[in-house]
Amino acid sequence: MSTRAQQYAATVVSRTELTPHLVRLVLAGPGLAEFRSTGTSDEWVGLVVPGQFQSRYYTVRSWTPPRDGADAELVLDVVVHEVGLVTEWALRDCVGETVTVTEPKGSLSLPDDAAWLLLVGDLTALPAIARTLEEVRTARPALPVRVWAEVPDDPALLASYLPRDVDVTWSAPPGEGESRLGEVVEQIAWPEGEGYFWMAGESAQMRAIRKHLMRVVGLPSTAYDVMGYWRGGGQRRQPRAVDPAPIYAAGKAAGKTDDQIWADYDAAREHEENR
Predict the structure, then answer these.
(1) Spatial distance between the Cα atoms of 67 and 150, rounded to a whole number of angstroms
(2) What is the pLDDT of residues 1-29, one digit of tens each?
(3) pLDDT per residue over 154-164, tens digit each?
(4) C-alpha separations of 48 from 7, 54, 109, 137, 183 in Å
(5) What positions does the domain FAD-binding FR-type occupy (predicted)?
(6) What angle is formed at CA 134 by the lines to CA 102 and CA 153, rounded to 5 degrees?
(7) Cα–Cα distance, 66 to 51 (Å, whole number)
(8) What's the Cα-to-Cα distance from 172 to each of 50, 57, 100, 115, rounded to whole Å?
(9) Are strands 224-230 and 196-202 parallel, antiparallel or unpaired?
């Protein structure tokens, strides 16, 4: 039997539209009192919104532990699309609603002796890039850093999102659900010495880039971290065989616990798959 990750209840206390495609949600409440950050700058959590069971993963833009009687605050910057489990919810006024977040996980591991740092990503990667830049500026201010960011919005709208004086090359995606970051990486003039490369974005691009780093650039596996955050190819999200919303509503109306509703949902999915 699988063990689910630790979960924490939180309330949306503010919602801010940073750009047409990026919404900031600030979560708080006593349910986050036991939340523990990994301390990794690209750490992410699963987010489950009202009426849904399935989680979507988002980078922790910032985390403020509880102190002096004040609740903890968890900031998530959510990329919104035309459709999606979280998108439709995040596009409306969700302040005051309760969500669930899972325990965080992270993967970025900058070596102490790295001579440089290269960060590449699309809009979904920008929260991790921003947090990484802030932490590197504090811990290793002399470390040379370059950023390549592919975003659908006017870069001027994101001028204050990254720290000042960062060497950033902005580009636009070729279309909705598409990316050219693979081409960007192929054109990088790699610095001398041993450094660290971090990248996140569309999954197919990431697979090709891993091969490029290994076979062409010759980076050892300890010198890079490449993460697939989403699936592209111009395909829209396929409808789920079992919609969890009606099961959730019926379960709550019947006074069932979340675990009981989960069991109902799992049984419905098993029934559908065996038809």
Answers:
(1) 37
(2) 345 679 999 999 999 999 999 999 999 99
(3) 999 998 999 98
(4) 10, 6, 27, 32, 34
(5) 5-111
(6) 80
(7) 28
(8) 33, 23, 33, 29
(9) parallel
